[in-house]
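go over whats below:
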Amino acid sequence: MFTIRYNQHGSGYKAYSVTTYEVSHAEDGEARVSMSRKLNGQDEYVEYVGDRAPYAVAYITNLEGKTIDVVRQAEITPVQDDG
């Protein structure tokens, strides 16, 4: 089991207790966090983390309460065209 705490821009948060989670990033760097409260994964929830998303950062903690992962907007480095 994990706890994911989503902190809003400014103040406020939402927390979930989940059995699994997966993070992917869009082209603009926004993070998509898919999570499930059940082992079979049939109750998937999705939250977004990023500059324009409802949440600025998400902290994932284990059963002992230790932070094991932090999800933020990914830094996107523009590709320069030398041509």
